[in-house]
Amino acid sequence: MPSETIKLTAKFKLKEFSEELNNLFSTYREIVNYLITFAFENNITSFKRLKKETYKKLRGKYPQLPSHYLYTACQMATSIYKSYRKRKRKGKANGKPVFKKEVIMLDDHLFKLNLEKGIIKLSTPKGRTFFEFYPAKYHEKLRDWKVGQAWLIKTPKGVFINVVFSKEVEIGEPFTFVGVDLNENNVTLSLPNGEFVQIITHEREIRTGYFVKRRKIQKKLKTGKRRRELLEKYGERERNRLNDLYHKLANKIVELAEKYGGIALEDLTEIRDSIRYSAEMNGRLHRWSFRKLQSIIEYKAKLKGVKVVFVNPAHTSSLCPICGSKLSPNGHRVLKCSNCGFEADRDVVGSWNIRLKALKMWGVTVPPESQPMKMGGWKPTRYEINTLHTING
Question: Of residues 247 and 383, which shows the higher confidence score?
Answer without folding.
Answer: 247
